[in-house]
Please model this.
Amino acid sequence: MHYIDNEELLNMPSRYRAQMINSLSGFKSANLIGTCNKNGINNLAIFSSVVHLGASPALVGFITRPDNGERHTLDNIKQTKQFTINQVNEEFWQAAHQTSARYNADQCEFEKTDLTPQIIEGINAPFVKESRLKYALTLQEIIPIPLNKTLLVIGKITGIICEQEALKKDGYIDIESLNTIMISGLDSYHTSTRLSRLSYAKTDKKPVPISLNGTSLKNT
Amino acid sequence: MHYIDNEELLNMPSRYRAQMINSLSGFKSANLIGTCNKNGINNLAIFSSVVHLGASPALVGFITRPDNGERHTLDNIKQTKQFTINQVNEEFWQAAHQTSARYNADQCEFEKTDLTPQIIEGINAPFVKESRLKYALTLQEIIPIPLNKTLLVIGKITGIICEQEALKKDGYIDIESLNTIMISGLDSYHTSTRLSRLSYAKTDKKPVPISLNGTSLKNT
Model:
């Protein structure tokens, strides 16, 4: 095993360190965040930092760099208080990556990447039609992280669009069946293969595989 | 596509909603956080909320429930200001899941799950020997999220242990080659298959696959 100490870490070229540090948190979710600005121009951007915060209330957060007038997603969310999160799947992962190019505010990533905006009445932010699991959020809070001037943007989920077949009896959504992909590092994309769901962990016995529906399996 | 509106969401049984909302953020990283309390008892707990915050300084965060005297990881980090994050791989994913059982503070998850503590001089927190990519952190800040009383715990990376073969020329770490696994929902575990790394996105051309080393591929 190779040990990289603090001094070696601090002396790395910045791009090299960015690649390495981005690999450390493990596999990251791949989501497109859809927003709309006050002039009605849709924006779409890939984020790998979407994180579950809680189920009741249903809160999801993501990390963004500071607002410097060039963060269209953040600007738009501040304006409209709404956004959508759309899971990226195997059918459009390259188009999703392309949304990270530095388009101007008046350029629409949907048009540039051939993804399709999907509008639902009452929600002032576009969904991605090609996404098979997506949801609308209302801005709750933007929490500054002074250490590196990033921000944690927190939304409350107000509606979910999902393929019926993927929704299992206990509420679990089989995102593998939706071909949802994930990211490692800054630019590597991956599909998944399920090992198993596992039973709720208890101190007096080992966890056992359970079915996709969350029920116990016979003969295990 | 099935649409779940806000009212349906609010009226769901809480366990059903927990399963569903936990599926929405996409695939989640699987990491074991190692800590040590003031009496020298090691603690190990699985977290699916580890998130990259920045490369310079090298900051990683994770979400934890509030400190109620029963959050051993948080208690220990407050005491020692140190912790380790250890990527979970295919060789010990069931043991990693088992660390989520409600052991008492005087019970050591390493012993209960047959994982092996690895101690490195100068770091007052145990690594998981079986992990193939792991790092030490010093507590920087604990940011409260008043909306649901969770906390964002932020550490600065001070040292990294990684298998040399997985470290690529541009700093990217091939975590797929380390058999790092991921989580969906609350209890489903998955391995990965790489689609590709992609070139840096630019507005005037489409991204193309690049090699594992981050270099351009011929004939693409």
In short: The mean pLDDT of chain A is 95. Helices of chain A lie at 6-10, 14-24, 72-80, 93-98, 109-113.
